[in-house]
Structures are given as C-alpha cells and as structure tokens.
Amino acid sequence: MNPYLDIHPEVAKALAQGKPVVALESTIISHGMPYPQNVRTALAVEEVVRQNGAVPATIAILGGRLKAGLTREEIEYLGQQGQKVTKTSRRDLAVLLAKGMDGATTVATTMMIACMAGIRVFATGGIGGVHRGAGTTMDISADLQELARTDVAVVCAGAKAILDLKLTLEYLETHGVPVLGYGTEELPAFYTRTSGLKVDYRVDSPEEIARIMAVRSDLGLSGGILVTNPIPEEWSMDPVLINGTMDRAVAEAEAQGITGKEVTPFLLARVKELTGGDSLEANIALVKNNARLAARIAGALG
Ligand code: PSU
Ligand code: MN
Questions:
Q1: How many CA atoms lie within 13 A of 114 on its CB side?
Q2: From the CA of 4, how far away is ligand 1's center (Å)?
Q3: Which residue in 177, 209, 256, 290 has a CA-CA distance of 20 to 30 Å to 54?
Q4: Closest Cα to atom 16, ligand 1: which residue?
Q5: 3-class DSSP state for residue 23?
Q6: Residue 104: beta bridge partners?
C-alpha cells in the first residue's frame, strides 16, 4: 500500500472488483478553464464517464495527500482556488507532499498517480508537448517524458497548435510512445480535426486499443500510449481563425518574456480571451468526447 495515496472508496471498490475506472486530471480545472465553468465541466465529465459504464477518478493533491477520486466539494474547492493551486509536474510531487500542500495535477502527474492507484486509462483535453522555438528555449513538457515511462493510456484531442506538433511527434517517436488516431489517420489539433500531420496508426474501436494495451503489457513494454480523438465535427473550429489566434498568443508570450511552467497557462488564457466563449465551448465538448472513449476503452480492458 502506498502510504501517500488516498483512493476514494468508490474507486477502490471498482478497482478491487476489476471494474472500469477512468482517471481525470485537475490542472484543467484549476488552470485550464475559468470558474465556475471549470467545476461544472469537471462534474459533467465525471457524469459522462459514469454514463459509459466506468467510475471516474479525478486526481489531485490535497493537504499533501495524493488523491485518486475527489468528492464534489473537493472539485468545487480546486475550481474556486484556480491558479492559486500549484500546477504540479513530476519535479513538484515530493516537495508538495513533504510540505503538506495542495496541487493540481498535469497530465504527467495524473499519469503517475493513476499508475500508483492501478488505473490504466486517463482522459483529458490536450497534452503538453514541444513548444515552438524549443530549439533555443528547450521548453518540452514533462508530459512527453511521462508518456515514455508510465503505463497509462492517455486519451486526448491531440495537442494545441500553440505547440510545435511536428517536433512533438518526433519526440514521442524517439521515446517509443505509439500515437494512435481514433477513426483517423491524421493527428487532431485540439480545436480542429486536422493538423496536416499523420498519426502512427489509425484505430477504430475501444477493443482494438485495449488489445494493443494488453500486448504491450504481455511484452513487458513500459510507457504509455497516446490515443488522439478528434473533436466532434459540430464543435470543430475554423482552422484559419484559431491558428491565427494561437500565433498571436505565442508572439505575445515571447514578447512578454513568459517562461517555464507559466508558458502553457498564459497561452491557454490568451487563446481563451481572444476567441471569447467559442473556444471554451469547444474545449468542454472535446473533453466529454474523450471521457466517453476512455470509459469504453476501460470497459474493453476486461
Ligand atoms: N494543454 C491544453 N490544456 C491544458 C493543458 C495543456 O490544451 O489544460 C495543461 C495540462 O494539465 C498539461 C499541462 O499536462 O497543461 C502541460 O503544461 P506544461 O506545458 O507546462 O508541461
Ligand atoms: Mn514547459
């Protein structure tokens, strides 16, 4: 038993009975969306997981405890705290526990805690990646390295074009992370279904993804897989408009000298401001869509 980990009783019961469980991240709640839409979305996403036959486990750090599965009150608390909560990546984890602090978990730390709890499937919106200009800034999200080492399937809508998507794919290839496209050969780019880049393999059912996970486990291959699930057609945004907005946000971040862990939250907030409510609506729709697929993959794992 991990002495730092609290598994919510409903999650623990499902895991003990071999029932499907889906992990959900909390940086998307604290840093990814404004209050109160963040709380409403987090609860709605949990509901989508349930409707698709799995138990949701939203992951965070509260009072120095790793939490797999949160109460409504805990989700409400994180949503209200917003950016005051520490955005927690791998390097922060032990420090936060030692200090008894709260932390919102990124894709990287949500994967780590899911793995500690025995949860194999995780749904989010977008992952971090290689930033544009990484050749000089070396800004590469710890999410990628975590995908390389931790055995969790991450279901996302691709990554935002605030990143260098081509270099992100190169990095994942180097580190042996398969990038699967759900019903598509093309890498989706979060707000849009297209990026002009190819995924490694197209997959067409949750069962197929579960089979790939089973074979990886049989072979003793460590590391995650990335399942990219395009935003539903009706929510897909105009690529010219959204890409122009992202270019502008990236230029502003550079001009203002934003660095380190502040870069992604800054870009997310600017894109949201510049597009008004549209991007937020699209964001909520794609997270729900990913939660649905993740629940079905968890169900197919058997
Ligand atoms: N990309 C999004 N939405 C998000 C994030 C990324 O489209 O909410 C969050 C996730 O929690 C992700 C983190 O793990 O940002 C990556 O941050 P960084 O680039 O600093 O590693
Ligand atoms: Mn970074």
A1: 33
A2: 24
A3: 177
A4: 128
A5: strand
A6: 60, 87
Tell me: the pLDDT tens digits for 250-267?
999 999 999 999 999 999
- The Cα 145–Cα 91 span in angstroms is 12
Catalytic entry in 160, 261, 272, 288: 160
CATH topology of domain 5-301: Indigoidine synthase fold (3.40.1790)
Q: What pLDDT, in 10s, does the model give residues 18-33?
A: 999 999 999 999 999 9
- What does pTM read for this prediction? 0.98
Ligand 2 centroid to residue 136 C-alpha, Å: 13
pLDDT score of 221 more than 90: yes
Chain segment 170-182, per-residue pLDDT in tens: 999 999 999 999 9
Provide the β-strand partners of residue 158: 189
Its sign, for the CA torsion 263, 264, 266, 267, is positive
List all residues 6 or more positions away from 119 whose beta carbon is below 8 Å from its beta carbon.
Answer: 11, 15, 21, 22, 23, 57, 68, 152
